[in-house]
Amino acid sequence: MSPYPPQAAPVPALSPGALALAPRYTEPGPPPRPRGTGPDRPHGPGPGGPPAPGPGTGRDRPPRPSRPYGPGPRPGRRPRVRNPYARLFALPGTRAFTAGNLVARIPMGMFTVSAVIMIAETRGSYALAGAVTATGLAATAVVAPFTARLVDRYGQARVAVPATVLAVLGSLALLLCVRHQAPHWTLFAAYAATATTPNIGGMSRSRWAHLYRGDPEAVHAANAFEQAVDELCFVLGPVLAAFLCAALFPEAGTLVGAVLLLTGMLLFTAQRATEPPAVPRRAGHRPRSPLRVAGMPALMVVFLATGAVFGSLEIVTLAFVDGPVAGPVMALQAFGSFLAGLAYGSARPAADPGRRLPVCLVAMTVLMAGPLLASGTGSLPVLAGALLLAGMATAPTMVTGTTLVQRLTPAGQLNEGMTLAVTALLGGVSAGAAAGGWLVEHAGAGTAYVLPVAAAGLALCLAVAGTPRRALPYAPSHGDSGATAG
């Protein structure tokens, strides 16, 4: 039993210099004295002299009145700004699904490099390796939107797990075909089966949008965090794949990537409490594609041009450096984007992302001119610094574009909308890589750096001409339309 009575009790008299801890009072005491009064000064309407001790006093002082406000900051005091990422992970289950997401996401940067190394070393043909991986990318562009539509309709766990199992089986089939010298056509068929891999980044962003619907600052921080994770996996995935293939055996990168993908997806989908509810199809109602929403086709074209920036920059840089340090130098661009993404997530979100996107693309166009100028110096450190700076425009552009996709996509179709954006981006990467390789062969690597600048300028013009200029409402209630999961 507590030693204190239920009501506020007088505090014992304290000797000078003593220290005491007392519970906070819940009942207000008498009003405080006016300034200038004390135990040896007259106060009140009565005669002078010290007053008689009142209730709740030990040193002839009234008790502290209770606070008339709640646990928030005091009136007139500026609230303390919290770390947006610490606030992001305050909800139960967010750390668990993020851990699974990270495990499943690293293989996304491993599979292409692993397939190229595995096929090139066993079949002796980089042309065959490139054709196989290009076929897989084309199949993903066709299949991924339909997989995402099923995820929206039936839920992440019910669709993502079997789709991942099919993709893992495709990777293992590719490994066995390469290992046992199967005909070339089997490599194309096996790698095309990996197209069922769910868009784990889009599903994670959908969870954040669902958990923090109505809180644009939290969703902004979540999108920035996810973009930083994308860049981190882009740096770690290829390095890990190359190391495994070189240190163990050519098929090691594909094998480890398949295991990580399945393990991470199982961990991710096991967190059902954070999963957005499914939106089943109503009888007689066929949901329209997000591409039919005004402004969405133009935004997808912007993503396509932005992907061309990344694809051309990578190919041109690898050709210009041409050596064992080419990978680390290229990784600086992703590292710059990683740092900028974390910083951008701490900034105030754009009230109108449609107006901020052109501003981000202006910055990208200007910074992409850095590698073009640095290539004229012939200095590798100067080029490395220019690539680091050029990457710092990537994350703000992608975060703003992702936010715009979330606001344009109809409720209950967010996975499909995000996957369409990723598909457009990957299509641009492929086109940019092909154009960059052609320009390197015909004009030289230094001159070919003009291609990323031109692609960024094209994306800027498309964004100014086609993205919505009206203020968009914040994030429709994705996954909150009253449908139940399952």
TrEMBL record:
<feature type="transmembrane region" description="Helical">
    <location>
        <begin position="417"/>
        <end position="440"/>
    </location>
</feature>
<feature type="transmembrane region" description="Helical">
    <location>
        <begin position="293"/>
        <end position="313"/>
    </location>
</feature>
<dbReference type="InterPro" id="IPR036259">
    <property type="entry name" value="MFS_trans_sf"/>
</dbReference>
<feature type="compositionally biased region" description="Pro residues">
    <location>
        <begin position="65"/>
        <end position="74"/>
    </location>
</feature>
<keyword id="KW-1133">Transmembrane helix</keyword>
<protein>
    <submittedName>
        <fullName>MFS transporter</fullName>
    </submittedName>
</protein>
<feature type="transmembrane region" description="Helical">
    <location>
        <begin position="446"/>
        <end position="465"/>
    </location>
</feature>
<feature type="compositionally biased region" description="Low complexity">
    <location>
        <begin position="10"/>
        <end position="27"/>
    </location>
</feature>
<dbReference type="Pfam" id="PF07690">
    <property type="entry name" value="MFS_1"/>
</dbReference>
<feature type="transmembrane region" description="Helical">
    <location>
        <begin position="325"/>
        <end position="345"/>
    </location>
</feature>
<feature type="domain" description="Major facilitator superfamily (MFS) profile">
    <location>
        <begin position="291"/>
        <end position="486"/>
    </location>
</feature>
<feature type="transmembrane region" description="Helical">
    <location>
        <begin position="102"/>
        <end position="120"/>
    </location>
</feature>
<feature type="transmembrane region" description="Helical">
    <location>
        <begin position="159"/>
        <end position="178"/>
    </location>
</feature>
<feature type="transmembrane region" description="Helical">
    <location>
        <begin position="357"/>
        <end position="374"/>
    </location>
</feature>
<keyword id="KW-0472">Membrane</keyword>
<feature type="compositionally biased region" description="Pro residues">
    <location>
        <begin position="44"/>
        <end position="54"/>
    </location>
</feature>
<dbReference type="InterPro" id="IPR011701">
    <property type="entry name" value="MFS"/>
</dbReference>
<feature type="transmembrane region" description="Helical">
    <location>
        <begin position="380"/>
        <end position="405"/>
    </location>
</feature>
<feature type="transmembrane region" description="Helical">
    <location>
        <begin position="127"/>
        <end position="147"/>
    </location>
</feature>
<feature type="region of interest" description="Disordered">
    <location>
        <begin position="1"/>
        <end position="82"/>
    </location>
</feature>
<keyword id="KW-0812">Transmembrane</keyword>
<dbReference type="InterPro" id="IPR020846">
    <property type="entry name" value="MFS_dom"/>
</dbReference>
